[in-house]
Design a protein that fits this description.
The structure is a homotetramer.
Chain A (H helix, E strand, L loop, with lengths): L1 E4 L5 H10 L3 E4 L4 E4 L15 E5 L18 E5 L2 E4 L4 E7 L6 H14 L3 E3 L17 H14 L2 E6 L5 H7 L2 E4 L7 H9 L4 E4 L6 H13 L5 E5 L15 H10 L4 E3 L1 H5 L5 H10 L4 E5 L17 H17 L3 E2 L1
Parallel strand pairs in A: 7-8, 7-14, 7-15, 8-9, 9-10, 10-11, 11-12, 12-13, 13-14
Antiparallel strand pairs in A: 1-3, 1-4, 2-3, 5-6
Amino acid sequence: MILELNKNTSESLVNEIAQKHEAIVVNETNAYVLITPSKLKTSLPEYKQYIIKEVAVPDDIQLASKLYRSEKREIKIADHLIIGGNTHNTVMITGPCSVESEEQITQAAELCVKLGVKVLRAGAYKPRTSPYSFQGMGIEGLRLLDKMRNQYGLKIISEVRDSTHVQDIIDHVDIIQIGAKAMYDHGILRAAGKSGKPVLLKRGFGTTLQEFVQSAEFILSGGNPNVILCERGIRTFETKTRFTLDLCGVSFLKEYTNLPVILDPSHAIGYAYGVPDLTRACIAMGIDGLLIETHPNPKVAKSDAAQQLNFEEFTALYKSVDTVAKAVGYKIV
Amino acid sequence: MILELNKNTSESLVNEIAQKHEAIVVNETNAYVLITPSKLKTSLPEYKQYIIKEVAVPDDIQLASKLYRSEKREIKIADHLIIGGNTHNTVMITGPCSVESEEQITQAAELCVKLGVKVLRAGAYKPRTSPYSFQGMGIEGLRLLDKMRNQYGLKIISEVRDSTHVQDIIDHVDIIQIGAKAMYDHGILRAAGKSGKPVLLKRGFGTTLQEFVQSAEFILSGGNPNVILCERGIRTFETKTRFTLDLCGVSFLKEYTNLPVILDPSHAIGYAYGVPDLTRACIAMGIDGLLIETHPNPKVAKSDAAQQLNFEEFTALYKSVDTVAKAVGYKIV
Amino acid sequence: MILELNKNTSESLVNEIAQKHEAIVVNETNAYVLITPSKLKTSLPEYKQYIIKEVAVPDDIQLASKLYRSEKREIKIADHLIIGGNTHNTVMITGPCSVESEEQITQAAELCVKLGVKVLRAGAYKPRTSPYSFQGMGIEGLRLLDKMRNQYGLKIISEVRDSTHVQDIIDHVDIIQIGAKAMYDHGILRAAGKSGKPVLLKRGFGTTLQEFVQSAEFILSGGNPNVILCERGIRTFETKTRFTLDLCGVSFLKEYTNLPVILDPSHAIGYAYGVPDLTRACIAMGIDGLLIETHPNPKVAKSDAAQQLNFEEFTALYKSVDTVAKAVGYKIV
Amino acid sequence: MILELNKNTSESLVNEIAQKHEAIVVNETNAYVLITPSKLKTSLPEYKQYIIKEVAVPDDIQLASKLYRSEKREIKIADHLIIGGNTHNTVMITGPCSVESEEQITQAAELCVKLGVKVLRAGAYKPRTSPYSFQGMGIEGLRLLDKMRNQYGLKIISEVRDSTHVQDIIDHVDIIQIGAKAMYDHGILRAAGKSGKPVLLKRGFGTTLQEFVQSAEFILSGGNPNVILCERGIRTFETKTRFTLDLCGVSFLKEYTNLPVILDPSHAIGYAYGVPDLTRACIAMGIDGLLIETHPNPKVAKSDAAQQLNFEEFTALYKSVDTVAKAVGYKIV
């Protein structure tokens, strides 16, 4: 259950109610928002005079639920770059899997500038399966991304792999990306909850939609309302493709949650050949953004070589997406 | 390996080669096509003078492979209704899950006529999970579908549930549908292989892409080249939606096979709310057709009540699909 | 809901009730058993005088439910070979994947005789994925199995692949096996329902436990009470093994259904190396039987070469199973 | 590739080779062990005089591979409590899901003492799906576990949820448990690699066997050879049980890796009714240990209430396991 109490409520009463009902308190500008375990479903008439709003939800999807807030949340990435709400914007985000060198990330940044893409993605800490593979450039990679922001005016998104560098990521990016393998990590979720920056939360490949949204609840109830969900493919029995992009799940998220949704078709299929068709399919769902991997020379990429588009392929794709977005009432930003 | 032998080859030699290499023979107009188990990979120089074409494939995807025929197969549903090849047509197919009564199917047929939809779908033999649920009207249902064809000029597609009525389906429909639970059935596949009618083969919900295309090989190698693949959602760990529509798999099928692909978003998500968004996503993939369930009154439907659109919802959807198709160079037929 | 009506009830009344409540009627020796769609949950006081028993079940698991019959069903394979009930017997069934020749099947039969195994398994109609692979010896294979029965006194189990030969299987075997790819086939399920012979129903690799038991309901409600469930591995994301043996599912079946359960570890793992350990694990669950694939020379087997044990491996395994069975209060028969 | 260099090799040469081949170095008592990315497969004759052993492996399973060390690793939990190697010991570990109070954990400890169980399990930091559920007692819980060690002589295992408390866990436990949701976390894996304590690494529910063993490689190559793998159920389409225990996977791990394997049937099925049968099945596989959840009063448990055995159930189970272990040549310790 979610209780919104007005600001006339004394802090001691807020704390008393919170303690009694095991609630988490979010201190918003216009209200104290208390979220109790979802098993509490009955109203609390004894506090009637303080209650602005009282919403019982059927399960642990609470702040993210349309039952609580029916309109989609608006997320400001930059003053002139807003998604969600009523914007009907689909933000294009592109760049290489990993920062590999200044030359490589500069080429990617220049492609963005040339085409008008406003957000650059690249990993500095790579969540690799094997200890014997390239693990990312670390803080050095983040500094190169800072340079791209300063030099080209691009916004930056990069991924937290584990808690040891979560603060570095928060300090250096414009959108904090929490990866598919880190999205259950309470330490990371709580750190993201304390930051005010937009957070792109990726769905784990073995994660149900219920758990996915519950991970978002950790950030939302931590005080950060700027959460974007990212579907990037789930693991199924099918092995001809790397993962299975779950667009049925995207329908569910759009229907039942108030969070913007960004899609990552590159990781889903894992092969460059399918990225253009899938990207257009994603856009036709009416979504808030896309993450597409591009690399100046995918063949020599240190990670995810098979799925990155080269610049020519990405350029061709990018030129085709506007009409698809328009066909469903959206525009690419 | 696939061998095409010219028509000057004597039948006895054809049979001799076939026997020696355990090959299946398809007698086409311009060639004898012999398909051996895919482990045979070396050429057969001793028959050089008869061989038109010789293709070694890496696995048991043979006649369906782009390595054998790189262009997409063209399928004629009616004289003026062709999909695949270079048509860039996306055929819309709609109708109720099951034929329930003359009144109900007539309403569906009239909706098709009103909107310009040319193919009517409805089940007569329902593959139900429970013996205690409605099992379909059987042959009586097929007769009602015949009536719709005669009265409204619609083409008819209906599903084979099991071998006991496969001939009835073949006799009464324009497109033979082999359902997700029947798609491994050799008896049905062979019967479909002997018919010249277009066959829509649904992917089983637990079926890999490899096995799916191999099922198509049973029909193709049985002598029927008119096979359409239909992705309708696979079973994954996610239960908020009925199944998971596998568009990554569709990318694979488009890249590696020469068979047209039709998508069924209704069965995939299992809930009407998501069908419009998913339908537009499917179209944006650049596909050959769609199966969408509609019902004059979904609430009283005897099967699949939750996922069928009512006529108003379908009409609104139908009006939105043309611009999406155009955005990717296709048109709805 | 299940209603048992006493035999004094007139047939016309039975039919009237059945029609009114869309029930299937099973005519048993001591009662008419009517099974209605499970949505009917309220009792029918108007027929009070005829009702012996009235059981409302929560879902479409009805005749198989412990709520209806709490004791495990007893299945007689031969006069002196009974499983289920209170027997605590675990029947060992072994033999090759396919009948390949008289010599091969005779060797398998002789191994059974030598070790004391009483039931011989072998496929005559193979449900292959590819049309270009060995499809089984067909009726010729069944005749060889007949010969083994006559010559060695073994009981025979063999699999129905599709409806076209269901009657041949029913005529030639002692236990009708319905395979994982055929277990949704209404035609086969109904034919098995009309036969009185024991039926071993395999779970499809993409089939939920709910659907699996519902398939059994087709046979049970068709009048054949002798249904054995067979878990043989489900398809998951894991590909190092062929399938994933679902022993949690076996726990569920033992807890909630009254049907005996036989396990097939050979198909589950797909590799001979794991069969001995898995077989012993299965036995330690307390189960009614095992299907283990053995072949005189697995390397040259025409199907499933990787997973068949050779005779030495099977003999070693067979010698180890008795003490495991005893440790859980069962005995190998 | 793995290279073992003798201790006469100069450190500078070790570092030179490591750098040249992107190798990780483990400094063992008798050798420098260098592990290169597995793509390196050719031998290095130029260092012939220093090389003790040189093993090329086909994939990124290296130190854990039987190709490198064919005998199962021996892990010492206490002076008189050893598993793996040639011990044929199956260690029983039990206790509640979470430490909830001193009274509760004392009851659990006393049950262990009474039955002769030597290792007590209980969580202090719970990896919960919802931020609105009980999150564990934290450091206070660890202190209570210390008390149990001191008072009852039990060994303690407890789980790391995230990096923020990894050092607390390492300091307070005898076996470091890395949970299913944390097993990709490089920060935690590296911290565990630096510790010399035994590590129980749980398989993620969406994790392939390949990735699972690769996670173990992070710890092994970090210098800690004491890694135990724990299978606890994977996520599949089946929802009647919480997860699906993957015993086929256990066969694979036993066949191809040199790491001991412990099983957790409680989390796999998620319901107490199935735990006894599954436990006996696990033991019959021939394994190195078991994690079984017990609680003095499962109905009031703050987490995992459905799957914990009460003391009477656990006692009955415990009395049945010895004969099963003996039947496969193992003994319960």
